[in-house]
Specification:
Layout lengths: L4 E6 L3 H12 L4 E7 L2 H8 L27 E5 L8 H9 L4 E6 L4 H10 L3 E4 L4 H12 L7 H8 L11 H11 L4 H8 L3 H17 L7 H11 L5
Parallel strand pairs: 1-2, 1-3, 3-4, 4-5
Length: 234
């Protein structure tokens, strides 16, 4: 039997929350375990410190999270909440619990998409996507991949911030192959170059990330940069 993916939603739009309950309730592989109007509410409920339901601080809809819930696998997080919280702070707070974060928004704001990904969000969808797209994104995150979307691809393709190093085609190829699990020897063979040359390209990639203020030392670091910058086509 396939593992059930637990999901929580942080959004202060009651109609959207009701819609997501109905949508996700019909997907057997997913289980919606919590809804909240703010990240603080979700975390407090997980700690067993905040009641859900009418009268709870920031209440927007009947809660479905019992006190002391385990951190969900995936949190769908609205980009802009009415409590004025910073999206990047919200993302980091959720990541510290062990959940992965899928940002949802009404508009494809390129700069905010990049900020969210830099803060550690694993994907970004606008709210006009259909249920199959949302379910696919959630499943991708649960298996360790990023959630790709046209909005995210466009934002990453046009990201010219200093934190995103400019890689040559060959540097990118060696990075992608090596970070995907290949040995350096295999990556070199695939590129038709020597291992020494492949290592030189990889060292250049690491140096560029170092100069951008994003130190990258190990293969895990490199794989993280590929996900953060969606260099694998996302």
């Amino acid at each position: 039997m396939a593992r059930v993916i637990t999901v929580a939603v942080v959004d202060d739009d009651r109609m959207l929350l009701d819609g997501l309950r109905a949508w996700l309730g019909g997907v057997p592989e997913l289980r919606l375990v919590a809804t909240a109007a703010t990240v603080g509410e979700l975390l407090a409920a997980a700690d067993g410190h905040l009641p859900y339901g009418a009268g709870a601080p920031g209440y927007t809809a009947p809660g479905i999270a019992p006190a002391g819930i385990a951190p969900p696998d995936i949190v769908l997080l609205d980009l802009v909440l009415r409590d004025g919280s910073a999206p990047t702070d919200n993302i980091r707070r959720l990541l510290r619990t062990g959940s992965r974060v899928l940002m949802i928004s009404t508009v494809p704001d390129r700069s905010r998409i990049i900020e969210a990904i830099r803060a550690g969000a694993d994907g970004y969808l606008t709210k006009d996507h259909d249920l199959p797209t949302l379910v696919t994104a959630i499943k991708d995150l649960a298996t360790g991949r990023g959630a790709h979307s046209p909005e995210l691809a466009f934002a990453c393709a046009h990201d010219s911030s200093p934190a995103r190093p400019r890689l040559s085609p060959r540097e990118r190829q060696i990075l992608l192959d090596y970070a995907s699990g290949m040995t350096l020897k295999s990556a070199a063979r695939r590129a038709g170059i020597t291992v020494h040359t492949a290592k030189d390209y990889l060292d250049r990639v690491k140096a560029k990330y170092q100069q951008a203020g994003r130190p990258t030392y190990t293969k895990l670091d490199l794989a993280r940069r590929v996900r953060e910058d969606h260099l694998d086509g996302g």
